[in-house]
């Protein structure tokens, strides 16, 4: 379970987030919606440990999060352009989790199958569509066995058909018991996938 209690963040004296509190139960999906400038991505980065908070508490199962418990699928995917799909997924498990080459490859192939990307193992990011890159980014994040997977605007710039594919994929991952947190400005998408929706707005709007 993820608990966020009275979280606040200020940059150079400007308050970005104030008094954010919510609980996300294991296996559930939380979407955080709001306009640009509301601090959604900052909130995600703090939860993922990529940015520091000014005050408040973040707990996973009642304890401070440790490295690797929260995975992130970034808006621009951040794939390694010089590595194949398979190498993108196996690199971190081998370096960080000390998995063997065989173990990391088996897991990567299983994840690609789960995400309907079998047959793309030897391709490079430039050979993939936006939707395919996203699936590789999700597989790469899942390969690190996170307790919670976060997405930053997973449907931005996608047409309605692809958006539905993302919905199916996220709901499919929910069936595996994965806890997911999604940043989005797309309220329809948010309501279609979420167990709960948290609305945030720029603090200047009161």
Automatic annotation (TrEMBL):
Protein name: Amino acid ABC transporter ATP-binding protein
InterPro entries: AAA+_ATPase, ABC_SmlMolc_Importer, ABC_transporter-like_ATP-bd, ABC_transporter-like_CS, P-loop_NTPase
ABC transporter domain: residues covered: 2-206
Transmembrane segments: none
SMART domains, alphabetized: AAA
Pfam families according to UniProt: ABC_tran
Molecular function GO terms recorded: ATP binding; ATP hydrolysis activity
Lineage top rank: taxon: Bacteria
Keywords: ATP-binding, Nucleotide-binding, Transport
Keyword Oxidoreductase attached: no
